[in-house]
Amino acid sequence: MTKPRGETRARILRTAAELFQRQGYGATGLNQVLAESGAPKGSLYFHFPRGKEQLAAEAVALAGGELGERMASVVGSAAGPRDAVVGVGELLADELRESGFRDGCPLATVALEQAGGDGPISEVCQLTYDTWLLGLSDSLRGWGAADDEAAELAELVLSSLQGALLLAQVRRDTAVISTVARRVASVVVRSLGEQGSGTQDSEK
Amino acid sequence: MTKPRGETRARILRTAAELFQRQGYGATGLNQVLAESGAPKGSLYFHFPRGKEQLAAEAVALAGGELGERMASVVGSAAGPRDAVVGVGELLADELRESGFRDGCPLATVALEQAGGDGPISEVCQLTYDTWLLGLSDSLRGWGAADDEAAELAELVLSSLQGALLLAQVRRDTAVISTVARRVASVVVRSLGEQGSGTQDSEK
Question: What is the ipTM of this complex?
Answer without folding.
Answer: 0.91
